[in-house]
């Protein structure tokens, strides 16, 4: 090894939901990052963040849906991806989910500090949202 060079194998899990690779998060208090390769039409919902989470889409396109945990207001849709690069910050008082839209895989990066937000089932989250894209 060269002085100043560090190489670390990353943990990856491939399942029906796509490929997940944990990028950072070994030191307490540091940011943890997850990369997930989503198949077209794949949905990941509902995430209940403990603290603020940051979401990026580096390849393909996703529709990110954010709503209040209380369900009081209409969910908000945000599109992001390689042709619409954005950083989305979601506070701990919100729920969110995302769907790969289009005909190619989407590469999504999620980052959080401390404990990872829980992935709730649609029944647990009780969010009245339909994932189809509606042309207006």
Instruction: Give me the CATH fold name.
Output: Jelly Rolls
The number of helical segments is 1
Computed Rg: 16 Å
Helix and strand content put the structural class at: mainly beta
Largest sheet: 6 strands, antiparallel
Please state the second-level CATH architecture.
Sandwich
- H-E order: EEEEEEEEEEEH
Query: How far is it from the N-terminal to the C-terminal residue, by CA?
Result: 57 Å
Q: Beta-strand level of the residues, as a percent range? A: over 45%
Q: Please give the order of strands in the largest beta sheet.
A: 1-2-3-10-5-8
Number of strands: 11
Globally, the shape reads globular
Care to describe what's here?
The chain is mainly β. Helices cover 3% and strands 49% of the residues. The chain is built from one helix and eleven strands, in the order E-E-E-E-E-E-E-E-E-E-E-H. The longest helix is centred in the C-terminal third of the chain and has 4 residues, at 122-125. 22% of the residues are buried.
